[in-house]
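Study this:
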Amino acid sequence: MGRIIVEVMPKPEILDPQGKAVGSALPRLGIDAFTAVRQGKCFHLSVDGPVTEELLAQARRAAEEVLSNPIIEDVVRVEALDDAACACGGDQ
């Protein structure tokens, strides 16, 4: 079974209250190495069989038309996910 990962982030000019809240909480936990936090979305799309260029094209279309709001978000990544890798914390 193949998987495709899609990452979506708010456009730079869009306010990110969730990222700001996380960024404000980190120093209270003694984590002060980070200067900013932005929160986005991560999708794992599973397919039967290997990931092909055609499937990646369909994933890009889904990312642009369904998984993101193009007015306020950018699709920053659409790629096949190596079974050994576990990007975005997904483990399925």
